[in-house]
Structures are given as C-alpha cells and as structure tokens.
Amino acid sequence: MTWGAGAAAFAQSSIGDNAIDPRPVLIVTGLVQEARIAAGPGMIVICSSSDPQQLRSLLATLDSSTFRGVISFGVAGGLDPSLKSGDIVVATEVMAGDTRFLAGLALNEEMIASAALRRRRVVRGGLAGVEQVIAATACKAALHSETGAAAVDMESHIAAAYAANAGLPFAALRVISDPATRALPALAKSAIKPNGDIDLRKVLRGLARNPRTLRALVSTGIDFNRALRSLRGCRGFLSSGEGLVASDA
After folding, report:
1. Using an 8 Å Cβ cutoff, are 207 and 71 in contact?
2. Quick one: which of 27, 240, 242, 235 has its CA closest to 115?
3. Collapsing DSSP states into helix, strand and coil, what is residue 246?
4. How many structural domains are present in the chain?
5. What local confidence, expressed as pLDDT, does residue 6 receive?
6. Which residues contact 110 (CB under 8 A, 6 or more apart)?
7. CA-to-CA distance for 86 and 177, rounded, in angstroms?
8. Is 148 contained in some domain?
9. Do the Cβ atoms of 39 and 45 come closer than 8 Å?
C-alpha cells in the first residue's frame, strides 16, 4: 500500500497566492541531540527517545490540524554499503513492511547543492522503518536486499503514517551514523535514557565489565559525532520551513 496525498495538502495549505501558512512544522526526532539541533522558530520538535511506542503516544496527544507539515530529522543506520557516516539521505519514500509512504515534500534544491559544496554527500533514497535497532552488519545487509533502502531508523515510518492519516505533507532527512559495514555495539544500543540522552554511567559500567568493547564503542562515538556535525549543517533545511517546497511526487 502506498500513501502520497501530502503534496496536495501542502499545495492547499498556503493562504492566498503568495502568503505562507503560519502554522509550525512538526519535527520528529529520536534522540535529544537531534531535537536540540532541530529546535527553532516555526518548529514544534518531539523526541521519541528511540522508543516507537513512546513516539506513537506522543503523536496521539497532538492536534494534527495545528501543523502544516511533518519532517523526520536525525541520524540513521546505513544500509547502502556505499554510504559513510556523515552522508545525508533525503528520503524519496519510507518503507515499513508492505506499506510505503511517498515523501510529499521535497527539500530545497539550492540548499542540497550548498550542502554538497561543503563536502557533505547528499543522496536521495528510501528509508526503512523498524521497531527495533538494526545492529548487526548481516541484518543491515538483509534489510537492504529486501527493501533497497539507503538507511534505516525507528521514527520515519511512524511520522510518515501520522502525516498520511492527517493529510499532511511529509519529508525526511537523515544522516548516516553507523554505516552498513559497521555493527552497532550492544552497549551503545542499551545506553539511551528515557529522555533520549546517553546514560554515561551505564556506558562506563559496561566498559568496566568488558573492556574489549572500548574500541568498537569509540568508533561508534566517532561516527555518531560526525553524523551530528553533518546534521547541524542541515539545520538550514528546516529554518522557518523555508527549506520546504511542494513535491511533484
């Protein structure tokens, strides 16, 4: 099943021929670091703490008529082996099981070109939505083979479903954190606090129990910080919603 009605809704959301809809854009993130980057005028930002059910509960409390669009914004796991940490994926669609959600918003082409000029690689591709972290390289390879998606995250499919049900336009911008060729350490998966922050005490306790995980954890941290730097560079895509234009999709 495919959803793609958001573009028409966006076209109807303008007031008059030239006026811009004053309603904010809803930004959906998974981690508090992503939420801090996204926060700003014209944005309502929510953070799932990498918990899909918590995200659904948060969305259920919101009045969708108060938003003019929905954007999933944050980091993602790489599925396409050619993508490295820090590479930017602008979603063309989001896949979750047999359901596909078409991106009903496109991000401004001039901003994409500008990002590329600053040596950030920007690609357009699909996102796979999952309910649990995909950590092992073999699992990433299997998901890539099954879906053809460039990256995977735990928020975009839920944000896309919310937008589709509300008749709102949808877009997703995700930056690769852990590449397809790198496994995500179990300690990194389990050290997220309910507020979406990193539980440093839990990390240190885990390292004390198994010091051999240090190298993998350091590599993951380097990848994550590189992804956050790249994500900060994408903040201009969101500014006051000006980086959004109607899609032909």
Report:
1. no
2. 235
3. strand
4. 1
5. 44
6. none
7. 6
8. yes
9. yes
In this structure, the number of other CB atoms found within 10 A of the CB of residue 82 comes to 12
Enclosing domain of residue 62: 2-184+224-246
Identity at 111, one-letter amino acid code = M
Cβ-contact 159, 67 below 8 angstroms = no
Cβ-proximal residues to 16 (8 Å cutoff; 6+ apart), any chain: none
At 216, the amino acid letter reads: A
Cα–Cα distance, 51 to 154 (Å, whole number): 8
Q: How far apart are CA 151 and CA 140, in angstroms?
A: 9
> Which amino acid is present at 61?
T
How much is the pLDDT for 9?
Answer: 44
Would residue 95 count as lying in a domain?
yes
CA angle (227 as vertex; 225, 228 as ends), nearest 5:
65
CATH number for the domain including 147?
A: 3.40.50.1580
Over the chain (249 residues), the average pLDDT of each successive run of 10 is 46 47 92 93 92 96 95 96 95 94 72 69 94 93 97 97 94 94 72 59 62 69 90 78 45
Q: What tokens appear for 78 in the block?
A: 């790489």
- H or E stretch at 78: strand 70-78
Q: Look at residue 211 in the predicted model and tell me its pLDDT.
A: 60
Token pair for 198: 């990193």
Q: Is residue 190, in this structure, part of any structural domain at all?
A: no
CB of 1 closer than 8 Å to CB of 94:
no
Q: Which helix (H) or strand (E) holds 77?
A: strand 70-78
Running DSSP on this structure, what letter comes out for residue 196? S
Q: Which residues contact 50 (CB under 8 A, 6 or more apart)?
A: 30, 31, 133, 154, 192, 196
- Residue at 199 is within a domain: no
Structure tokens belonging to residue 176: 């690769």
